[in-house]
């Protein structure tokens, strides 16, 4: 089977995973953590980041949210009325606070926290 071939079994597994994630979010919806001014289902926050994520400032949390939505640094700067350099400073501060190896890990975490499952 080539890499481009359609695998119905894989699609079934992915659909089941999405169903389970939605179910976990629904169950955990009553358990939320406040990150900046945003409420996030506690089930989405990795346990190792649970305490550190509470140390983020409101602006850092807003940058993280836009990052999770797939926005570029320039877009985030425009939306928050700050410079692109300030966005990079916030990204680096969050990587330090959350003990991440870099912005790629931060982007992955932001996606887990803020990207909608639907």
From TrEMBL:
Nucleotidyltransferase among keywords: no
Molecular function (Gene Ontology), one example: DNA binding
Top-rank taxon: Bacteria
Keyword field: DNA-binding, Transcription, Transcription regulation
The protein's name in its UniProt record: Helix-turn-helix transcriptional regulator
Gene3D superfamilies in the record: Winged helix-like DNA-binding domain superfamily/Winged helix DNA-binding domain
UniProt xrefs under Pfam families: GerE
Domain HTH luxR-type, first and last residues per copy: 49-114
Keyword Transcription regulation attributed: yes
Organism: Sphingomonas spermidinifaciens
GO BP, one annotated term: regulation of DNA-templated transcription
InterPro entries xrefs: Sig_transdc_resp-reg_C-effctor, Tscrpt_reg_LuxR_C, WH-like_DNA-bd_sf
């Amino acid at each position: 089977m080539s890499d481009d071939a359609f695998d119905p079994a894989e699609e079934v597994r992915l659909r089941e995973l999405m169903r389970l994630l939605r179910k976990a979010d629904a169950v955990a919806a009553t358990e939320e953590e406040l990150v900046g001014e945003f409420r996030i289902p506690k089930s989405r926050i990795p346990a190792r980041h649970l305490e550190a994520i509470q140390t983020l400032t409101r602006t850092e949390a807003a940058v993280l949210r836009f990052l999770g939505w797939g926005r570029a640094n320039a877009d985030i700067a425009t939306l928050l009325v700050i410079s692109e350099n300030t966005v990079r400073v916030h990204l680096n501060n969050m990587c330090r606070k959350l003990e991440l190896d870099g912005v790629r890990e931060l982007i992955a975490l932001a996606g887990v926290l803020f990207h909608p499952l639907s």
